[in-house]
Specification:
Elements lengths: L12 E12 L2 E14 L2 E7 L6 H8 L8 E8 L2 E2 L1 E3 L8 E5 L2 E8 L1 E7 L6 E4 L1 H7 L4 E6 L2 E7 L2 E5 L2 E7 L4 E4 L4 H12 L5 E7 L4 E7 L18 E2 L2 E2 L3 H7 L10 H13 L5 H13 L13
Antiparallel strand pairs: 1-2, 1-4, 2-3, 3-8, 4-5, 6-9, 7-8, 9-17, 10-15, 10-16, 11-12, 13-14, 14-15, 16-17, 18-19
């Protein structure tokens, strides 16, 4: 149980050399830049510094080109002096150009990227995005008691199962993490339904048979917090237990299994149900109606006590 597998975060950056290859009078010509990738407010930014001896106007025709994967090379990538192998796997096209005091930079946003490094074997791990972490964090916090006096709070863990898939949740100062070897999408759907908010992850860690650690960093789709709870759950009971408390809710669906409702159907219904929270009342009614007339049953029908 360790969140340190994510070497890159909001307080760190990835530095590397970016070599671009462009067509000139003498054929294919390379030019190198010091570059970095930073993560701020769920925005991934790739930025390069213009080398000494060049002026922005001299490079304008080069830096406004679109570079496919075969037209650039990444080397010497590191995070806090830890060597990594960095992969962007998309075209590079700079969209922002800034002139500062004795410094010229170009930048662009990335939807996702990947990096690999030599690390110790650890279970698969996901970092939940800030909004999701904020919603889950209270459930992973307990009081610290000295004698009969509360002196503060401590972080806790939760080990459970969702549709038969075991998982472990824990947190650090900023984020909640989920450790599981199963398909996390079904758990995220269940959590999204409970909070009536999209619960997404922005980093995924895995370890391969070659003793390499792999991390993917992605931009989440939803960044606005809608409702803070699903009021429907206040009317659903399992025996005498109301399902509006997260752990009771997760305990109830732990072994739910309905062969007529597949994971894809659940994800589709949950996605539409949550999206409705971002719409006006008329649009919300139309989306609810489309859900109800869809073939199959809604996710919360699966919560009916059997």
């Amino acid at each position: 149980m360790n969140s340190k597998v994510f070497l890159f975060n909001e307080s760190s950056s990835i530095t590397f050399l970016l070599q671009l290859f462009y067509r000139g009078a003498e054929g294919r010509i390379p030019i190198r830049f010091n570059a970095e990738i930073k993560l701020e407010n769920n925005v991934i930014t790739l930025r390069i510094n213009i080398p000494d001896g060049y002026k922005p106007k001299e490079l304008s025709s080069i830096l406004t080109k679109t570079y496919k994967k075969k037209d650039y090379k990444i080397s010497n990538a590191s995070i806090d002096d830890k060597s990594i192998i960095l992969k962007i796997d998309k075209e590079i096209r700079f969209t922002h150009f800034n002139t500062g005091k004795n410094q010229y930079t170009c930048s662009m946003t990335l939807k996702q990227f990947y990096y690999t490094y030599n690390g110790s074997e650890r279970p698969k791990l996901y970092r939940l995005y800030t909004t999701a972490s904020t919603l889950l964090s209270p459930y992973l916090t307990d009081f610290s008691v000295r004698g009969n006096k509360v002196v503060g709070t401590v972080s806790t863990t939760f080990e459970g199962s969702c549709y038969g898939m075991p998982f472990l949740m824990f947190k650090d100062e900023h984020h909640v993490y989920v450790q599981t070897e199963g398909n996390i999408n079904i758990l995220l759907c269940a959590l999204s339904f409970f909070f009536c908010n999209p619960i997404e992850y922005d980093m995924e860690y895995s370890y391969d048979n070659e003793k390499n650690s792999h991390v993917s960093v992605i931009t989440t789709q939803y960044n606005i917090q809608a409702a803070k709870s699903n009021n429907v759950l206040g009317y659903l009971f399992s025996g005498n237990v109301c399902l509006d408390y997260l752990y009771d809710y997760l305990d109830f669906i732990k072994f739910c299994n309905d062969s007529t409702i597949t994971g894809d159907i659940i994800e589709a219904y949950i996605s539409n149900y949550i999206r409705a929270e971002y719409l006006d009342n008329i649009s919300k009614l139309l989306l609810y109606s489309s859900i109800l007339v869809c073939e199959g049953r809604l996710f919360y029908v699966a919560l009916t006590v059997k």
